[in-house]
Structure formats: structure tokens, C-alpha cells
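Anyone able to model this chain together with FE2/S2 (inorganic) cluster?
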Amino acid sequence: MYNQKVIDTFSNPKNVGELPDANGIGMVGSAECGDIMKIYLKIENDVIVDCKFQTFGCAAAIASSSVATEMLKGMTVEQALKLTNKQVVEELEGLPPQKIHCSVLAEEAIKAAIEDYKSKNNK
Ligand code: FES
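re: yes, here you go
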């Protein structure tokens, strides 16, 4: 069902774990499957300098979290807000249709983390 890129990413995901000095944290759940994704961002001068994730979900959700967190590093907050699940799917070289919602979790978790950052920093 999964392509090699997804399998490789799921087998060796990057940026797994908590980020103790995160200043933006977003957690979302999928109504469709009940899986949960949490993304931690460390933002300095409006640039994402570090990020990590904890995903309690399927292989596609874990692979999506891994590539999304890789893509986020070095982005400005505004650029990160524009990151779509479509870009995450492209980075994974495709996901099966029934697994697209897993990539949507990544987009939503990023937006939630940025909202958290903005609310804590009066932005
Ligand atoms: Fe729902 Fe993958 S099956 S996140």
C-alpha cells in the first residue's frame, strides 16, 4: 500500500520526541480514525529553529509528521502557516487515497502550534 519513501520515513522518522523549550505546541486528533499528533515548535525571531513531534497514529501519520517537521526547520511563521498537506504528500512522493487525512493532521497540528505560539507571545 505504501511507497518506498513512506516506508523508509516511517522506519526511520526524524524529530521524534518532546521539545522541552518549545514555545508553540499544537495537538490535533483525527475524527476519522482517532489518531493524535502533537507538534512542538521552537520559534526565535519569527523563524522555526527547531521542531519535534509525537504521533500516536498510523504509519502515514508518522511519516507525514517526520517530513513536515523536516520541512518546517528554517521557515518563518508565515511560511509555516502556508504549508499544506498537499506539500507533505508530495514530499512523501504520494499517499494512498484513504491515507490523505493522515497528512491533514500534520497541517492542522502545525497551525495549532503556531496559534499557541501567537497566543503566548501576543502576536
Ligand atoms: Fe488516521 Fe492515519 S489512519 S492518521
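The radius of gyration is 13 Å.
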